[in-house]
Amino acid sequence: MRAADALMEALKAEGVEVVFGLPGGANLPTYDAIYDGGIRHILVRHEAGGGHAAEGYAKATGRVGVALGTSGPGATNLVTPICDAMLDSVPTVFLTGQVRTELIGTDGFQECDTGGITMPIVKHSFMVQDPREIPQAVHEAFYLARSGRPGPVLVDIPQDLSRADIEYEPATSVSLPGYQPTTEGNQKQIRLAAKALANSRRPVIYGGGGIVNAGAAAEFTEFCLADRFPVTLTVMGLGAFPAPHEQWLGMLGMHGTRAANYAMDEADLICAIGARFDDRITGKLSEFAPRAKFIHIDVDPAEISKNVPAHIPIVGDAKNIVPRLLAEYRALEPDRARLDDWWERIQHWQRQHPLRYDDSADSEIKPQYMVQALYEATGGDAIVSSDVGQHQMWTAQYFHFSRPRRWINSGGLGTMGFGLPAAMGAQVGCPDQLVCCMAGDGSVQMNMQELATCAQEGIPIKVFIMNNGYLGMVRQWQELFWDRRYSQVHMGSYPDFVKLADAYGATGMRFEDKKTLVEDMRQAIDTEGPVLVDVRVTQEENTYPMIPAGQAARDMVG
Amino acid sequence: MGEPGTKELLSLEDLEAAGGLRTGRKHVLSILVENKPGVLTRIAGLFARRGFNIDTLAVGPTDDEAVSRVTLTVDGAKHPIDQVTKQLHKLVNVLKIRDLEPEDSVARELALFKIACDSGSRGEVLQLTEIFRGKVVDAGRRSVVVEITGADDKIESFEQLVRPFGLIEMVRTGEIAISRGRGET
Questions:
Q1: A301–B89: do the CB atoms touch at under 8 Å?
Q2: What is the CATH number of the domain that holds A389?
Q3: For A306, phi and psi rounded to 5 degrees?
Q4: What is the chain A residue with the closest CA to B88?
């Protein structure tokens, strides 16, 4: 069998139904195999769009997303999605073509050292040197991508090798002696954690994207509700606990709620589950949660004590650990009343500092209101992707995510242009659900071309552009920290998104009136096929509250 | 699950944070890796990316041809050594890492010294070489090349002593190490 056909068989054996990609010289054999290989292929307009679509697919479905590109520029265009998938632990496999073996190292046409370029940003990579390795490399790539702490795996295949004839046998097992992720938590540590929780007076449960990745949102919620634990989540974890809820403090971190950040600041015990104490969470590390002891549950041992030293580290899968922690905790029969004073303090913050903004008195659409309007128009029942910037933070603040895998954003790398192709991938993975993208007018233009893909393939995503004419988050920082010297952030009203949508074969709409916004949004959602909506919002609105970079939770402004 | 219903609660004050600590001493890490292309790049790249400095590095085959051994030394005063080893463990081709304690292991390094000498000073250089149980591996009218094997402090002492004669150049392999006793490293 031709190695490229064996590649298709291996992909199908891994349960792959759809891949996102763009052909070129070095992956022509693969594309010849795709022609009648039995796997749906979505022809993207730029490899980065394909890479983010694979991420969106993976985040929405929990399955491994697959993206293809050719050698050289095809591969370098995939670098951003690969790095994005690395930072957000997204299970993805990237299949890149490579020049013929004899040309490697000669600076041949469309040659680049894809393996070398991507080495620091992949979970692992395979640079295939023998055609017989291809099926096994694919199986190992999928196993690595989805197990332990998920992440991107690259398989780089020289063109001549995928044309070679090989014996194909379905692989039955993988052999990775150096890769043995710990999934089961240590019982003694779990018991220690339960005791510490039972003994704490001011606990906070701080959850992250690891809960979503582990498929442990239900277990996590049950654990949080076993007592009156205050719960906060990172931007990656939203949906792991059903918001709104009386125990829900809101998101924490740079643009989190005051209640969540103040609770972290005064907590005596913080139980981190599937979260990694990113600088957007901790702010100034030396002043982060100064009174707290830390339980840290994570599947990646290298995350434990990386930024914040853990008092009770537990390495393993949240789905394995959290139910056992719950059982140990219940057995202790802790006194629920011990948290009364703590809740009184938290509720004081919640009353004093709710999320708020000054709504307009006229027809002007405030960006925060736009998010609330989308929540209302969808009834909260939608997968929502976003780009990166102010609109992302407002969506995280004001759209209440009550289920996991409903909120799809680029948290770690902060990739502008992520939202539209990610929504496309999510829609392909979840054809029966409503998929919306909350986009920025700056971000959306970075992968706008995928609207053509959506039109051609009939992928009916609804893209709502929060159009303020600025690179809003940068403008906000220039306003607050750089004396209002607005350097290169004004984008004006270009392009005309409605005309552009029309040119791409999608439906374009423009909304400018707050009073009819919810109804207008419903109409956009009910329109068939892909829709691009230009929503004109207040130009110079700031995202608050905010912990200025490098400062402590106590220093929140706005 | 054991001990259900225990009422003995743990005091938060009793907990001591573990990890993230700098040991303040040199660590010799003995790492077994799969003998596959790019493994060394992955290790070197990891150190560069995480801001760790490699002090010395030696790579060679083992008794198993599918496996190579990397011995590297890291300054535990500059980096939390548990972070270094945990990050190394995440590399799929890394099979085993052992942080060799100085008292439980034997470490050796080989160095070649090219020393300027003439008929007047040659005798003294040869005498020093003998004291250090070194070997002269090349000799000319105006220089000698001396081979010294030992722990790094021995090599450094020899370097200090021959420097006044005119040390033309020095080449060191970096330390390799093996555990003491019957067990495998």
A1: yes
A2: 3.40.50.970
A3: -70, -50
A4: A302
**By residue range, what is the domain housing residue A279?**
187-352
Question: Residue A361 falls within a domain, yes or no?
Answer: no
Residue linked to tokens 């056992």: A324
Judge: B12–A176 Cβ closer than 8 Å, yes or no. Answer: no
The residue among B67, B70, B86, B97 with the most chain A CBs within 10 A of its CB, best to mutate, is: B86
Neighbours of B139 (CB within 10 A): 13
Q: Which fold has domain B106-179?
A: Alpha-Beta Plaits (3.30.70)
Are B1 and A187 within 8 A, CB to CB?
yes
**Is A173 inside a domain boundary?**
no
Q: Where a domain ends, among A352, A380, A415?
A: A352
Beta carbons of B49 and B41 less than 8 angstroms apart: no
Whether A389 and A510 share a structural domain: yes
Look at residue A16 and tell me if it is in a domain: yes
For A302-335, the pLDDT digits (tens) are 999 999 999 999 999 999 999 999 999 999 999 9
A147 Cα to chain B: minimum distance (Å):
12
User: Between chains, do A302 and B90 touch, taking CB under 8 Å as contact?
Assistant: yes
Instruction: Look up residue A321 and give its two tokens.
Output: 């650990």
CB atoms within 10 A of CB B15: 17
Q: Count structural domains, chain A.
A: 3
The string of pLDDT tens digits covering residues B49-91 is: 888 888 999 999 999 999 999 999 998 877 788 888 999 999 9
Q: Which of A48, A76, A212, A65 is nearest to A151 (CA)?
A: A65
On the question of pLDDT at A298 being above 90, the answer is: yes
Helix (H) or strand (E) holding B124: helix B122-131
- Cα(B46)–Cα(A123) distance, rounded to whole angstroms? 12
CATH topology of domain B20-100: Alpha-Beta Plaits (3.30.70)
Question: Out of A119, A191, A301, whose CB is closest to B42?
Answer: A119
Task: Output the CA torsion sign for A182, B12, A250, A330.
Answer: positive
- A346 in a structural domain: yes
Q: What is the ipTM of this complex?
A: 0.89
**Do A371 and A343 fall into the same domain?**
no
**Nearest CA distance, B69 vs chain A (angstrom):** 14
